[in-house]
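Example complex used in Figure S2.
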Amino acid sequence: MISGCSSLPRIAVVKYPGTNCEEETAFAVKQVAGLESSIVWHTELHWRLWDAIIIPGGFSYGDYGRAGLIASWTKSIDEIREAIDNGTPVLGICNGFQVLVEAGILPGALLANSNGSFIARWLWLRIRRPRGPWLSVATESQLVSMPIAHAEGRYYVNNLDEVRQGPWIEYLENPNGSIANLAGVSSHDGLVLGLMPHPERAAFPWQAPPGYTAGGRLIFESISQSLRNGW
Amino acid sequence: MVVTNKEAARDPEGETLAHELRKQGYSYIVSLRAGKSYIVDIEAASAEKAILLVKELASRSRLYNPVVHDLRVLLLAENSRGKVSGD
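Predicted assembly (318 residues):
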């Protein structure tokens, strides 16, 4: 058997100073999606080398200024914009979602939770109008569970109709005061998805506490299917 | 109330923001301080009295910690509430 070049699709997991969910995100891509994945330092990100890009969770640049602000100034964002213009799927998880909204790639803003606290808990989500590479195996109104862990997750947007032109993810029980229970929003075509819940922490049954299931698998199974067979 | 870290206590947030902004081309930034501001509406007989009350509030409540913080109290508006005539 000839070893060497693999033809598997490759996903970059971008790391900024303060990112801390990159290992488990890359692990979930490999184990659940069955794709190749590497952790890429943000200055080394070249979009042409990758079939999809994930900005994982954490506290990039210490959340200085606002969560995601300084990362949104880096040249990795120019790479990500170009990737999106060329049809490369991009996913932002938690702090990655905050980076995407700070960069203006996704609409809206993420404000401090309405209860003033950091919230870390599992909860149920509903997938709405799924389409695009990150939700290609989801069905309308499918329920999934994942954990959240954030202090600034209260999604706010001026124009809800704009957001609802793409797929979105909503909380069944709104934990943080997000407008319209929004937990995640997308570009119209679903190519770019940002969400506060952590799919990589809900990628295996052993991660889920009693009463919940590994709902994050949906995201990784979708991108696997999409990169192999289109979406 | 504007609460910032004293020079000796450093200011990693401000220093990081200044450093990253200079990298973005804003080379004219000499320094940048991060801090917290609190806007308080209070009742007082005069502007001078209001500033004194707010300084006392900041110190007693430890919203400002004199060990590590500098405090500035700025008057933003007078008669902001309960004003019958005028604007």
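Chain A touches chain B at residues 61-62, 64-65, 70, 73 (CB under 8 Å). The radius of gyration of chain A is 16 Å.
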